[in-house]
Input
Amino acid sequence: GQNIDQPTEMTATEGAIVQINCTYQTSGFNGLFWYQQHAGEAPTFLSYNVLDGLEEKGRFSSFLSRSKGYSYLLLKELQMKDSASYLCAVMIYNQGGKLIFGQGTELSVKP
Amino acid sequence: DTAVSQTPKYLVTQMGNDKSIKCEQNLGHDTMYWYKQDSKKFLKIMFSYNNKELIINETVPNRFSPKSPDKAHLNLHINSLELGDSAVYFCASSQTSGTSYEQYFGPGTRLTVT
Output
């Protein structure tokens, strides 16, 4: 079966750094995505990792270890507007772009 | 210049009715998707079409029928609506040939069945 786990909720302080972990067990792997979703809005793309290692994009970085079935999203210099749900998703190989999503991590940034 | 658009944004209807949701993308992508996001915010794929051909058809009741008249449009028709169909339905698109696979999501349609 397909299984993606991430913490349900996290709280952090403005200006701090937070790491959101994601572990996965899937049949076939063609990359891992992170999406951000504000309440009442659509998910928006943050990052895509298909090879092991760290991808940095501004305040956001994403890491992948395929052998461990593990990824994390690192958010630096947290801002209030970063309060949102962060969704980890795995693309299944050779299934037409099929994404399996985790349940999302609700991040609250406090002053 | 909206990338992925859906109509309507809100849909309130009674059990047993039939309703449709429309989706259009102007990104030139070759693949479109329908997702359902339930009250626990779990996002689950329902269907995908690649160049008007059905590629993914998850375990979804037959009451749900997608239609893709061309590769820029993917509609979702739901027959005999049930209370459990209440959710937010997202349309998305992506280009599956190439190196950039991210999916772009529409604003969502919040369906409430009473």
